[in-house]
């Protein structure tokens, strides 16, 4: 009876655990020399997830258009953040672009592009590779598979 109660509790808590917070750059954070093109590979960003940018006073985070991302132009930033620990809510499906506006940082690779899919959406548009990122099941079928695996152990 104890195992069944634990599984029921897990199933009931599942909807609250669907959103994932991604720490940009993992333990290195948002910093010069980070490889954000590699960091983003294999991750599926879903509406409701968040990005956490951790950085020191020499950096900040600008959300920009694709054109400004491609050209490392922070002059027309959609939003600017400089608090050292910025949480960006991924509220809508589509592409989002971020750069560090400090001179030379974006051109040196300190820029991030993410594709946000709708909840229950498909896999990322780029080929995926294994990752150390969170692996929270995103739908009821995945939760049931997880529960079945636990039950059979």
From TrEMBL:
CDD domains found in the cross-reference section: Phytocyanin (cd04216)
Single GO molecular function: electron transfer activity
Chain spans, region Disordered: 119-144
Skewed-composition ranges (Low complexity): 122-137
One term under GO cellular component: plasma membrane
Segments forming domain Phytocyanin: 20-118
Pfam families attached to this UniProt entry: Cu_bind_like
Signal sequence annotation: 1-19
Gene3D superfamilies given in the database record: Cupredoxins - blue copper proteins (2.60.40.420)
Keywords: Copper, Glycoprotein, Metal-binding, Signal
UniProt key word Signal: yes
Protein name (database record): Uclacyanin-2
Annotated source species: Hibiscus syriacus
Species classification: Eukaryota, Viridiplantae, Streptophyta, Embryophyta, Tracheophyta
